[in-house]
Design goal:
heterodimer; A: 211 residues; alpha+beta; 3-stranded mixed beta sheet; 3-stranded antiparallel beta sheet; 7 strands; B: 131 residues; 4-stranded antiparallel beta sheet; two-stranded antiparallel sheet
């Protein structure tokens, strides 16, 4: 028995051929770095609650992943981020949805848990609470990457409603294809998303898959 | 989606999850991430953070299901996570990371890959994308 830690940056239809060596290396490097940060904090005796917030903040601040900077866009091109946190020792929890200016939604979720009698705040209420608490906020444009604007434009062009089924929103910006639900309700596959480069400059492999 | 679960030197567990949701999602859509019990859960037995097809994860109440299997059926962590991911959540729909209060770690997914990393106090470390 001792401390233990795990972290993730999303799951989906990520084939080995869908990720360029550069993108793979970048992903593994940051996973290693964030794992080290979490392990160091646990070794120093920090609480599990502090450590999960710390690590998720790092992931939110990394544009490779779909949270915080690099969060994907709604049909209207807006950002609506969501986060939650739970302390197993007390079973206290906090959550936020629909925030578009909060740099670290996970920390706002923790404030909901610790500073309110509630579990979950959303949209205008969550934004107002963020301002009251003085958490760091940025203009919505701070969160929007060129890669995510491009993906949304292609989805809108094709008139497709995407199913939350594959990788694009749950993994680094690898580009690719996805299962889709067409506007008429029929399902289709392999809508091509792989072209150009991710916002972070990593090459996207042709034929890559993402959610 | 991103997430982290941890158990500290006192055996206390915690979980956290954060996301931007889906490309081209409807305005106002809420996924599993902020729903306690679906995308995130922690109690005195374990902590869980999920990722994948949000609507399916909500329907399965994946995170709480893992905790319930441990609490009420006394399953070990790995067996509980395997049961939820492979028997409840449809194939290709996602994955989760979990730790138990006794320091076990599970990173289970039924998609082609999941960006993941874990470490334990006894020196075990793992970083991976694919199975």
């Amino acid at each position: 028995m001792g401390w233990a830690l795990a972290l993730h940056g999303g799951a989906g239809r990520i084939s080995k051929s869908s990720i360029s060596p550069a993108a793979r290396e970048a992903s593994e490097t940051v996973l290693q770095e964030f794992l080290d940060a979490g392990c160091a904090a646990l070794s120093e005796g920090k609480s599990a609650l502090d450590v999960v917030e710390l690590v998720v903040r790092l992931l939110e601040n990394c544009p490779l992943f779909n949270a915080g900077v690099g969060a994907v866009l709604t049909q209207r091109g807006t950002v609506e981020m969501e986060a939650s946190i739970m302390d197993g020792a007390t079973r206290k929890s906090g959550a936020v949805s629909g925030v578009s200016t909060v740099v670290n939604p996970i920390s706002l979720a923790r404030l909901v848990m610790e500073k309110t009698p509630h579990v979950y705040l959303a949209f205008e209420g969550a934004e107002a609470f963020a301002k009251d608490q003085g958490v760091e906020t940025r203009d919505e444009s701070y969160f929007i990457t060129p890669g995510n604007k491009e993906r949304l434009a292609k989805a809108l062009e094709a008139g497709l409603v995407l199913l939350d089924h594959s990788v694009s929103t749950d993994g680094p910006e690898h580009g690719g294809s996805r299962e889709v639900l067409q506007a008429d309700g029929h399902s289709g596959r392999d809508y091509p998303y792989a072209n150009g480069h991710a916002a972070n400059g990593h090459p996207i492999a042709a034929g890559a898959e993402f959610e | 989606t991103v997430g982290c679960v941890a158990v500290d030197i006192n055996g206390h567990c915690a979980a956290a999850t954060s996301t931007g949701g889906l490309v081209n999602k409807m305005v106002g859509r809420i996924g599993d991430t902020p729903l306690i019990g679906a995308g995130t859960y922690a109690n005195e037995f374990c902590a869980v953070s999920t990722t994948g097809k949000g609507e399916e994860i909500i329907r399965c109440l994946c995170a709480k299901e893992v905790a319930s299997l441990m609490e009420y059926k006394y399953l070990p962590l790995k067996e509980a996570t395997d049961t939820v991911i492979w028997k409840k959540l449809g194939e290709g729909n996602g994955g989760l990371i979990a730790v138990s209060s006794t320091g076990e770690v599970a990173m289970t997914f039924n998609t082609l890959g999941m960006f993941r990393a874990c470490a334990t106090e006894d020196g075990h470390r793992q970083i991976g994308i694919w199975k």
